[in-house]
Amino acid sequence: GVTALFSGAVSSDAGYQITSGAINSQTGTTYTLLSTDNGKVITWSNASGVTLTVPSVLPVGFNTTIIQIGAGSVGITASGVTLNSFEGKLRLAGQHAAATIISYASNIFNVAGGLTGL
Description:
This protein is mainly β.
């Protein structure tokens, strides 16, 4: 059988639901993903640009959704990992854009969603 692992206040009894405890609200200009961010939604509310770093310590199966709430663009960088995305785009496209980051092999991540290359 298949075992699904979730973290951060996720309920599956009435469908896929994320509670407020699974929202990680950020206001700074730099952030490095943590293993505790697995399954969470991370938001950024900053007028300045933000750099999100994906480190090599995250497990296969790690996944998170990121959302740009503020005007400052969110760029995604790698630290010891490979980031794959359509056309190599690794910046959220603008305010209210969102993307998912998923590890499907050791230190290899797919980034997909509202991305731009600018």
